[in-house]
Amino acid sequence: MKKLSILGSTGSIGKNTLEVVSRHPDKFKVVALAARNNIEDLELQVKEFKPDVVAVFDEEAAENLKNRDLPVDILFGEQGLIEAGIIDSADMVVSAIAGSPGLGPTYAAIQAGKDIALATKEALVMAGDIVMAAAAANGVSIIPVDSEHSAVFQCLDGRDRKEIEKIILTASGGSFLNRSLSELDKVTPEEALKHPNWDMGRKITIDSATLMNKGLEVIEAYWLFNVPLEKIDVVIHPQSIIHSMVSYVDGSVIAQMSMPDMKGPISYALSYPGRLGDILPALNLSEIRELTFEKPDVDKYPAITLTYRALESGGTMPCVLNAANEAAVDAFLDGDIAFTDIWRVVADTMSEHKTIHVDTIEDIIGVSNRARKKAEDIINIKKEQNKQ
Ligand code: MG
Q1: 69 exposed, middle or buried (CB, 10 Å; 0-12, 13-18, 19+)?
Q2: Model confidence over 31-89: pLDDT tens digits?
Q3: pLDDT for residue 106
Q4: Chain CA centroid to CA 140, Å
Q5: How far is the CA of 256 from the centre of ligand 1 (A)?
Q6: Residue 72 Cα, ligand 1 centroid: separation in angstroms?
């Protein structure tokens, strides 16, 4: 019986994780749950999965939950999330807190020696060197939940890194694959939130439409699989059936396919190296008929170029890119800036940052917070310009 702590249990990944657990109650036990402030869903989850501990980021929400007389210890704040992640009884922590707030609790869980099922890619984007070094030092396995990285992990299957020619990440192309660059200035948050294949949270759906998600995934792959940047490629594959591929030195390419549903990569991370039944419907290729591929249009989508540039610059630059993108996506969802301003805010914030190298997670969180403020200043200027 594997005991799980699920950080981010009321988000899309968290709910899918609990769905996998509920289909295999003989294999998994939930010992801790953590969420930001969605206590309605959390209450239902506590009643169904009976964890020992729940943590709520928002103190007021935690107080509200305490008044509901649930048979569970209730923690709150950043420290509460950390305690849920380092709880003695957990064998594995599912790291699924959305965005940069996930870094601290994930890092604490690694230091406590917990194996990690990693959905919060920001932990590696912001602090890949520090996080991977801590995992190695503590004998921790980081198993990817991101569908592309799960695919690569499955295609690699322990093979020698020297045999890898390329890691090829697939991208659906998001909501606006067939729109021209000039049309993108005018798209609304509602349009951007309609993803053709995947049902995901709001932030990642926008990142998918800008292709920034793929850029962040390049950085994630760089740290997870320890290959040079020039060995990581991106290809647009609108059907989202091949989740990524590895090309080997002998010209063979191994691809991983399934229906696009996050329960696939989640169940693999939970059960690795085994596989669970009753997760996804069988793949019917004769019904799908067509799998197509194209090169990403880097003029239309500068996000991938920006992320390669951030990784080449190294140090704190990927963290700054991520913080600026989080601020810009929030501003776009609030209607303050245009869709195409997202890239401009990221590029402008990066050009005002001088790369440094830091050694601690506290320092990297400081860099992230300052970069977010800088991005918000840039956003405010754009907002004023848009009004005129
Ligand atoms: Mg992904």
Answers
A1: exposed
A2: 999 999 999 999 999 999 999 999 999 999 999 999 999 999 999 999 999 999 999 99
A3: 98
A4: 19
A5: 14
A6: 33
Gap from CA of 216 to ligand 1 centroid (Å): 9
> Are 348 and 292 in the same domain?
no
> What is the number of structural domains in the chain?
3
Q: What is the 3-state secondary structure (H, E, C) of 122-151?
A: HHHHHHHHHHHHHHHHCCCCEEECCHHHHH
User: In angstroms, what is the span from residue 148 Cα to ligand 1's centroid?
Assistant: 5
Host domain of residue 324: 314-388
Q: Are residues 57 and 78 in contact, defined by beta-carbon separation less than 8 angstroms?
A: yes
Same domain, 246 and 341: no
In this structure, the number of other CB atoms found within 10 A of the CB of residue 330 comes to 19
Distance 273 CA to ligand 1 centre (A): 21
Residue 387 alpha carbon to ligand 1 centre in Å: 35
Task: Indicate if 164 and 290 belong to the same structural domain.
Answer: yes
Alpha carbon of 146 to ligand 1 centroid (Å):
5
Residues 293 and 336 in one domain: no
Compute, in angstroms, the gap from residue 181 CA to the centroid of ligand 1: 23
Q: How far apart are the first and last CA of the chain?
A: 61
Give the separation between CA 364 and CA 103, rounded to whole angstroms.
10
Q: Are residues 209 and 170 in the same domain?
A: yes
φ, ψ dihedrals at 302, nearest 5°: -75, -5
Distance 99 CA to ligand 1 centre (A): 13
Two tokens, residue 58: 């928002």
pTM: 0.96
What is the CA(49)–ligand 1 centre distance, in A? Answer: 27
Residue 91: per-residue pLDDT: 98
Task: Copy the structure tokens of residue 300.
Answer: 């239309």
Ligand 1 centre from 61 Cα, in Å?
30
- Give the count of beta carbons closer than 10 Å to the beta carbon of residue 300: 15
